[in-house]
């Protein structure tokens, strides 16, 4: 059975033109997702690698080699600069996102991140947590649009926790707002209430321009997919969601070809496991997108399969698997590197506009799965169980298969 891997917004041959989003925005905005349209795009790119913590270094070292080979087969050369981030940076420098790291990331053509976090730093004060470094990185790169595709591959349908007939054919895209909402809103902190009890508090806040720009990205994506956009919010309770729904509805007027629906997040969480095929493109805020994309990942078989691309108005994109640092399996060569390898494909496609090299990686991943290689998280009886490194080696072997080859 021919498999297709929809890491993209539509088909691999119809890249999303995010620049058109900018033109229609009431607040001028230009999203860079590919090299500027000058005569000949540079074939040499600088990539900042942020391995981070836990399984991060394991999956990044595999993805780096795959990226390098796919690039070289397409006449692309990379210079990689590895920088500390998260817990690794805390141990080295005392802070989770050193100035040198953010500065290198801002100057690069694209940034590939593994994952951050771990038990060792869990009790740190908030400003000294690895997670704070990741939020600072996203903020520093101004990457507000986080694309998280979740596709059930025929090869992995038995790895899904859902029944085959429910999981089969699922192909959805979560468009998550990434630099606003409760992860960034102020006021936030700790204090005491009127009874003298300790409290912790955060603020869910969205400005119109933040909703408008992510809504436009989502409408553009939906337009290039199956033309359906579901906006997920909690507008029955939260003011920030009420504004969200109002603005998304307003923006919809510019996209008459896209069918817009609205869903409360609690229902969306339920619908995702009840009948996930009803979803094409989902647009939602930062926290709901974080949670729903993790949930969607299990429909596809494993969180170890889901890549992501985070794009901003200008500057380099940030590409990372959606999973965390998985401290429970770190250092054991058990991690599934495919989410990071596929993030490298998204980097090529959306970050650099190098679709052929991206396709080489996507095909290689499918080829490797077709040959039956599986890490533990997607293993079923009869498969060939491999570790992180061997999975990477198998993908590497398939990378030089001809672009566009039927798999
Ligand atoms: N983007 C990032 O760097 C993120 C970092 N984190 C951090 O990661 C740490 C662990 O968080 P958790 O909630 O446990 O989430 P997690 O995603 O790290 O792990 C959840 C479960 O999925 C498994 N898993 C994750 N990635 C896998 C892979 N590639 N292959 C096979 N199995 C995989 C883990 O073994 C674990 O059982 C925390 O410190 C958290 O803050 C969590 C989410 C995102
Ligand atoms: C680790 C956090 C900063 C956020 C998170 O879980 C994510 O964005 O995936």
Number of helices: 13
Provide the spatial order of strands within the biggest beta sheet: 2-1-3-12-11-4-5-10-8-9
Largest sheet: 10 strands, mixed
Report the bound ligands by name, code or SMILES: 1,4-dihydronicotinamide adenine dinucleotide, 2-OXO-4-methylpentanoic acid
CATH topology type of the largest domain? Isopropylmalate Dehydrogenase
Q: What is the level-2 CATH architecture name of the largest domain?
A: 3-Layer(aba) Sandwich
Net shape: globular
The radius of gyration is 20 Å
Q: Count all strands and give the number.
A: 14
Order of helices and strands: HEHEHHEHEHEEEHEHEHEHEEHHEEH
Termini Cα gap? 8 Å
Tally of individual domains: 2
The share of residues in helices is 25-40%
The CATH superfamily of the largest domain turns out to be Isopropylmalate Dehydrogenase
Strand content: 15-25%
Would you write up a description of this structure?
This protein is of the alpha/beta class and 407 residues long. Helices cover 37% and strands 17% of the residues. It has helices at residues 19-24, 56-72, 87-93, 99-107, 130-141, 164-167, 208-224, 239-252, 265-274, 286-299, 338-351, 355-370, 388-399; strands at 44-52, 77-82, 110-115, 145-151, 171-177, 189-192, 198-201, 228-233, 259-264, 281-284, 309-311, 317-319, 373-374, 384-385. It has a 10-stranded mixed beta sheet with strand order 2-1-3-12-11-4-5-10-8-9, with helices on both faces. A two-stranded antiparallel sheet has the order 6-7. The longest helix is centred in the first third of the chain and has 17 residues, at 56-72. Residues 1-20 and 25-35 have low confidence and may be disordered. The structure holds 1,4-dihydronicotinamide adenine dinucleotide and 2-OXO-4-methylpentanoic acid. Residues 131, 134-135, 290, 322 line the site of 2-OXO-4-methylpentanoic acid. The site of 2-OXO-4-methylpentanoic acid has 5 residues, from α5.
């Amino acid at each position: 059975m021919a498999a297709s891997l929809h890491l993209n917004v539509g088909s691999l041959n119809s890249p999303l033109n995010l620049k058109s989003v900018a033109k229609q925005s009431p607040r001028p905005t230009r999203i860079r997702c590919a090299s500027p349209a000058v005569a000949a795009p540079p074939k040499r790119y600088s990539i900042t690698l942020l391995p981070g913590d836990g399984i991060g270094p394991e999956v990044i070292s595999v993805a780096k080699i795959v990226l390098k080979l796919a690039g070289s087969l397409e006449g692309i050369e990379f210079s990689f600069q590895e920088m500390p981030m998260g817990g690794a940076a805390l141990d080295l420098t005392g802070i989770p996102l050193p100035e040198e790291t953010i500065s290198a990331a801002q100057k690069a053509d694209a940034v590939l991140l593994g994952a951050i976090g771990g038990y060792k730093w869990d009790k740190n004060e908030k400003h000294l947590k690895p997670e704070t470094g990741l939020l600072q990185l996203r903020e520093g790169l101004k990457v507000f649009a986080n694309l998280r595709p979740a596709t059930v591959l025929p090869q992995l349908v038995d790895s899904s926790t859902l029944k085959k007939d429910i999981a089969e054919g699922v192909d959805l895209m979560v468009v998550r707002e990434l630099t606003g909402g409760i992860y960034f809103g102020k006021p936030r902190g700790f204090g005491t209430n009127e009874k003298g009890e300790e409290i912790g508090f955060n603020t869910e806040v969205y400005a119109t321009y933040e909703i408008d720009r992510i809504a436009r990205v989502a409408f553009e994506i939906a337009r290039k997919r199956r033309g359906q956009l579901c906006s997920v919010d909690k507008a029955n309770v939260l003011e920030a969601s009420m504004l969200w729904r109002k603005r998304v509805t307003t923006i919809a007027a510019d996209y008459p070809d896209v069918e817009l629906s609205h869903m409360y997040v609690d229902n969306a969480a339920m619908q995702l496991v009840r009948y996930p095929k009803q979803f094409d493109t989902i647009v939602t805020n930062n926290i709901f997108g974080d949670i729903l994309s993790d949930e969607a990942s299990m429909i596809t078989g494993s969180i170890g399969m889901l890549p992501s691309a985070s794009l901003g108005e200008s500057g380099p994109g940030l590409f990372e698997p959606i999973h965390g640092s998985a401290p429970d399996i770190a250092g054991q060569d058990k991690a599934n590197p495919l989410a990071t390898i596929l993030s490298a494909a998204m980097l090529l496609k959306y970050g650099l506009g190098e679709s052929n090299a991206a396709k080489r990686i996507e095909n290689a991943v499918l080829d490797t799965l077709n040959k039956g290689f599986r890490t533990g998280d997607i293993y079923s009886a009869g498969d060939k169980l491999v570790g992180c490194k061997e999975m990477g080696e198998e993908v590497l072997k398939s990378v030089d298969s001809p672009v566009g080859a039927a798999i």
